[in-house]
Design brief:
The complex is a heterodimer. Chain A contains three helices and five strands. By secondary structure, chain A is α+β, with helices and mostly antiparallel strands. In chain A, 33% of the residues are buried. Chain B is α/β, with parallel strands linked by helices. Chain B has 24 helices and 18 strands. The chains are: A alpha+beta, B alpha/beta. The interface between A and B is medium-sized, with 28 and 40 residues.
């Protein structure tokens, strides 16, 4: 199970676009929780996904106009144990690990 | 005080809209009532799908935002295919739809459809307008998102009562993007990494997609490719970005790409992707796509990364920013001598195999047609075999010279799209190439062509089949031609005549001699040179196939050439 945390502006359709990225892949929604968090909103979803789908989902969510940021963590770690790791669009990590991996 | 409809139109004008395509109906009537004197020319098509494809054609050839207008319910749902098409091919498009009165929304009122919900997964951004006060901000924001970053479709759904209501209006507004929204930008460190990858590479190649023209960085890209001088090829939407006479250019890549391009892609050890999604029509079997290559993917939309094949180095950003940054770094690099690799990839043996198709009469016909086009031309292809034949044969240095529905593959696209293209470029020779199946999907737009007197040159490659489906049935379904027979097609020349458009017919036997006879040559010249709309039906063999072809599930290196 993978837990995803997405912060978004609560504009018309923003949450539905986030959930559509899941349903269009035929993934069952195990758990969804959305709430206001300061000036923005946050939705937490729990999904059974492959490693490839994790990347695809995070990148697709990042491309939604009203999404502020996206993170994920393994659900088994528990919410108290693991702060979620941000998954920004990939170029943010170019200077770091992915660039080194490309040269490996 | 102006009405909501007048505010909408003023806001559209403020966004630079002077042309819109649409079809009136009940809920959108207030907008049409205010059109006169608005400064916006409205083009009445004969179907809403025609309107949205025409708006797409306009947008694709100009780079500006195309605007389509429709009423609620069926009017709005008829836009859906065009919206999906714009999403797939990154076309800036704003659709304005009428909606039932605010008080009736959700009551299943007459011609009520939840178009906001229907198009949610197909749009980049959308709004159901709730108050007349929102109109200026919504339109400004809608246009911003349609044209920013990776362009895409926007739907603005406006209840009819808001179009009729009045309010004080101080003028259109500008949209200020939210902090943190908009285009992602690549960090500078990527340049060092790419240069290092190039210095290590023995067989580098470049793949150019639609992002090249969308970014407006064609000159920068061409300069970079000239400096790199590595084998280069294009997706169907990347055609024209690289001058076809460039010595390192290998043509189109993918399912119906050239042997040279596909083989180079199969053998490369470093693939530079400039603004292409790497969809399945380009990659073939993704597990065997560029199997030895590290991939550097220049892309503006992070959602497009790793869809089919993982890349080693993503570079997120606009090519207009990232290419010059890389170019600057190359000046300090000591790149290897790739002349042996270039000679192999671009050399005679592979290129000659690509010439085998010249014996095919339809290819010869297209060669004859394209070679007689004036320099200022745009070719719009529909979807099917003729599309791939045209893509294989059209050679242009104009990045917006070849227009087609690539990602969605929507039959019926070409004729209405040609309307939008011709209106945007009235002096340009606009050639619309369709199949007999696709042409009938929006054949009603012949009325629009006639009404406006647009000198579009329409070609129907008529094989009396849904040709591409039939080809697959022949190759992969034991010739079970289930429901692809169109042998009872109408007489297209007579249909054109009914619309007061002159029609011509040419049989493929006219292509048997080379060069073609003076009579055939004159026919083509007259057809292309006419100041009026013209229709030319080219009767081709029912079982003519598109080759080369990479069978579904095969690697790019496993293309087949048929028996031509």
């Amino acid at each position: 199970m993978q837990m995803f945390h997405i912060r978004y502006r609560n504009a018309q359709g923003a949450l539905m676009r986030i959930l559509n990225a899941i349903s269009r892949r035929g993934i069952d929604l195990t758990s969804v929780h959305a709430e206001a968090r300061g000036q923005e909103y946050a939705v937490t979803v729990l999904l059974e996904v492959t490693h490839k789908q994790i990347g695809q989902l995070c990148r697709e969510w990042s491309s939604i106009v009203d999404v502020v940021d996206v993170g994920s963590s393994a659900a088994s770690l528990g919410p108290g144990q693991a702060a979620w790791a941000p998954l920004p669009p990939s170029s943010a990590s170019i200077s770091g690990q992915s660039a080194r991996a490309a040269l490996a | 005080m102006p009405k909501g409809a007048e505010i909408v139109l003023q806001c559209l004008r403020a966004e630079g809209v002077d042309l819109a395509f649409g079809y009136p109906g009940g809920a959108i009537m207030p907008l049409y009532d205010s059109l006169d004197g608005s400064g916006i020319r409205h083009i009445l098509t004969r179907h809403e799908q025609g309107a949205v494809f025409a708006a797409e054609g306009y947008a694709r050839v100009t780079g500006k935002v195309g605007v389509a207008i429709a009423t609620s319910g069926p009017g709005a749902t008829n836009l859906v295919t065009g919206i999906a098409d714009a999403k797939m091919d990154s076309v800036p498009l704003v659709c304005i739809t009428g909606q039932v009165r605010s008080a009736m929304i959700g009551s299943d009122a007459f011609q009520e459809t939840d178009v906001f919900g229907v198009t949610l997964s197909l749009t980049k951004w959308s709004r159901l307008v709730r108050t007349i006060d929102e109109i200026p901000e919504v339109i400004a924001e809608g246009f911003h998102w349609a044209r920013s970053g990776r362009p895409g479709p926007v739907v603005i759904d406006i209840p009819t009562d808001l179009l009729k209501a009045k309010r004080e209006f101080s003028g259109p507004v500008k949209f200020a993007a939210h902090a943190g929204s908009g285009e992602a930008r690549a960090e500078g460190a990527f340049r060092d990494t790419i240069v290092a990858l190039l210095e290590q590479a023995a067989r580098p190649v470049a793949l150019v997609g639609a992002g090249a023209k969308l970014s407006g960085a064609i000159a920068e890209l061409r300069r970079l490719l000239d400096d790199l001088n590595i084998p280069t090829f294009a997706t169907v939407h990347g055609l024209g970005a690289v001058p076809p006479q460039s010595p390192y250019y290998l043509g189109m890549v993918g399912m119906h790409g050239t042997r040279a391009a596909n083989m180079a892609l199969h053998e490369t050890d470093l693939l530079l992707v400039f603004g292409a999604r790497l969809d399945d029509r380009v990659t073939g079997d993704p597990t065997r796509f560029a199997p030895q290559a590290r991939i550097v993917h220049f892309e503006i939309d992070p959602a497009q990364l790793d869809r089919v094949r993982a890349c080693e180095l993503p570079v997120i950003g606009n090519l207009a920013d990232t290419i010059p940054a890389l170019q600057a770094e190359l000046g300090h690099a000591s790149l290897p001598d790739w002349s042996d690799w270039r000679a192999l990839a671009c050399g005679g043996e592979r290129a000659e195999l690509d010439l085998r198709g010249r014996a095919q009469p339809t290819l010869r016909f297209l060669d004859e047609l394209f070679s007689r086009l004036p320099a200022d031309n745009v070719v719009i292809a529909d979807v099917g075999q003729h599309q791939m034949w045209a893509a294989q044969r059209y050679r242009s240095s104009s990045p917006r010279g070849f227009i087609t529905s690539g990602g969605l593959g929507a039959m019926g696209f070409a004729l209405p799209a040609a309307v939008g293209v011709q209106l945007a470029r009235p002096q340009t020779c606009v050639l619309c190439v369709s199949g007999d199946g696709g042409f009938q999907m929006n054949i009603q737009e012949l009325a629009t062509v006639r009404r406006l007197g647009l000198p579009i040159k329409m070609v129907i490659v008529d094989n009396k089949y849904l040709g591409m489906v039939r080809q697959w049935q022949q190759l992969f379904y034991q010739r079970n031609y289930a429901e692809t027979d169109l042998s009872d097609n109408p007489d297209f020349v007579e249909i054109a005549k009914a619309y007061r458009i002159r029609g011509w017919r040419l049989h493929e036997s006219a292509m048997a001699e080379y060069p073609v006879s003076a009579e055939t040559g004159n026919l083509i010249e007259t057809f292309l040179g006419s100041p009026e709309p013209e229709l030319l039906v080219f009767d081709c063999h029912p079982e003519a196939n598109v080759y080369p072809m990479v069978p579904a599930g095969a690697a790019l290196s496993e293309m087949v050439f048929g028996d031509e």
